[in-house]
């Protein structure tokens, strides 16, 4: 077990992923370390809906890094902020979500994962002329998944962004989204420093053969008692 966190048996770790340097903001993530307590998609989907985080991760093998990811409304083969968070928590070199092997490194401040751009689901990347335009956006009606962004400092690779999943599952705006940052990095072909939502920070860098490295700060926010699985 990762020495950073000692979770009671059956507990749910609540992490903040992609937080700012002051440990504020970031996206909440639920991690069920003992995934075997919730076997099957029905039980896992029900718990993810009950918890209400944008994503919840179930750990099926902590040594191999085998994980399973859910939003409140569906299962995901890949998602960025859950993989960064669970990589930090398990302290492993490789994760194994459904899409394939995800390599991990930690530089002491940021946890990084190396992923492939084609793993990310489609997003509508909408560029705006000014960060103030992004700040002023209203939450759109459910429908298209929108990643709104503008250059803060193009020479330095600094971007202002907000994310609107449009799923209609109660998550109107996603505070920090690794998959959308991955797609934007692929499109622009350069390293980015993204400030998203209220002040979350996501770092990215393109790699060889269509890979992208995504990094962020992670910390433990709380440990919850897991409810009993439905019978």
From TrEMBL:
Coiled coil: none annotated. The active site is at residue 55. One of its GO terms (molecular function) is catalytic activity. It comes from the Bacteria. It holds the Pfam family PhzC-PhzF. InterPro entries: Phenazine_PhzF-like. This is Phenazine biosynthesis protein PhzF family. It comes from Actinacidiphila alni. The lineage of its organism: Bacteria, Bacillati, Actinomycetota, Actinomycetes, Kitasatosporales.
